[in-house]
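# step 3/5: fold
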Amino acid sequence: MIDQDQARKFWTGWVRREIGGSAMIQEAAVSAAVNELLLGHDNQAAADAARSTAQQLAGDIPPVSAALPASTPASTPAPLNTGKPLFRRPWPYVAAAAGVVVAAIIVIFATRSVHNLGCLVGQTTLGQRTTTLHNAFVDVYNRDFKVIEACTSVDCEKAPKLEIAGSLKTYNDGLNAICWPDKYKAHATALMQANTAMADAFTKWATATTPGEDQSLQSAAKEQDDRQGVADDILSTDLGVPLPTDAPS
């Protein structure tokens, strides 16, 4: 069975060496490769997916001729710590105007620059942009919470908590790059504020050094997590993005 964290580390290095591009493009390419492996496909399929994703995003990355490694590292995942309360699990939204439900394990198509959209951009385009940003956050959140739940010490949990906080800041960078029409501005601002509050709470949670402190800070983080989820859903509903139903836990 493939360990997602080990696979992601492996393909992060491979994409950096063989494809390159911006950090956003590389993250999307890595997610595409890991997704292929999780679907049971081989390394060639993973490499092809990584290249294809990068080319769709940048349009100018030439094919890579470098030989593929023989195998992707794998290991047995650590047992889950069932004592940790389960947080809200965000799930990918339906791809706006595409008629296709994005799978729980998704290939992230990162947003290109949207500075030139202008405030006259339509609801459908805004829905597609925010769906991309939301789903990128979901990918990080769900991946890192699997790590947190598998940890048996507060020190082990620090890195994934901080990565979730960082992904919320990236989410806000994308939202800030959009010139929001007045009719959506209030809810977009509310989501950015909720993202910031959740990022701050998770950053604070990562400072815990004892189980008691961890539990106290976790309560505050969960409160902001729930508020962020509400703000996220409100904006997406405004933009006509269908929300997921009966999402797996």
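# step 4/5: annotate
Residues 59-88, 95-118 have pLDDT under 50 and may be disordered.
# step 5/5: archive (pending)
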